[in-house]
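1st attempt posting a full record on here, be nice pls
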Amino acid sequence: MRSRASAATRIVLLPSVFTLISVMLAGLFAAPVVGRPQGVDMSATIDDHDIADTTAAEPLRLQPNSTIRVAIALTNNTPAAVRIRRVDLAGHVLGLSFFSYSTAVELSIAPGKSDALRYRLDLTGLDGQATGLIVADLAVIGADGARIASIPLDTDVRGSLWSVYGLFGIALAVLTMLAIADAALAIARHRLSTNRWQRGLRLLAPGGGIGLVFGFTASVARWWVPDTGLWLAVAAVAAVVGYLLGYCSPTPEVAPEEYFASTGELDEIDGMNTVRFRADGQTT
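the predicted structure (as tokens):
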């Protein structure tokens, strides 16, 4: 019964392990934010603050249901005219977009000329999209849908914990707690594998989950801006620490019948023909 319960627990926790690994791989292989191409110079201010000067210590504060003033200056140093159709303001975490606002514009800049865009952006609905310190970028999009220029910035989103980003972090925390509980029960019941590699893998997912949850907590608590590379590095270090703890943990003592059952030798013994000896020395 205990082996069936343990197997059922592992089956239930498999999605959590796959989710943690998928999140880490999604961030690892996510396309990087495209920088501005050569030949097009861009500068921008939001509420009269140069967004290129934003840092984790001095981020741009975005208040839900408020209006911000956006001013963009562009210089076309290319030999062809540049046509602007849209301006996007989006926040990204681990390669995933958690808030996004698009504004339709009409602007054409002749070669060697400069022009500017000024508009007001309504942040309605931001409280349901994200909260905490988030890396964002302001990008101008051409008529063909290609990004012409962009500027990264650090934002302080004053949204709700029950936003999409907040629920993403809560889901990470729940999955991590389930993985920790599964490992703790296995340790308490002496159900860890006698194989060091398997013990290490058993604690790999809880370690990586702790690293991801730490990054989310630091973002929501406004301790740091969750840069993808740094966040994944923290999660990777935590996963390695978890693996080493499992690998170096003492080998649990296993009863003989449990050992044979785990290796499959018990079934072979049961299937063998048995021979009984009578008192007179003959077999039956």
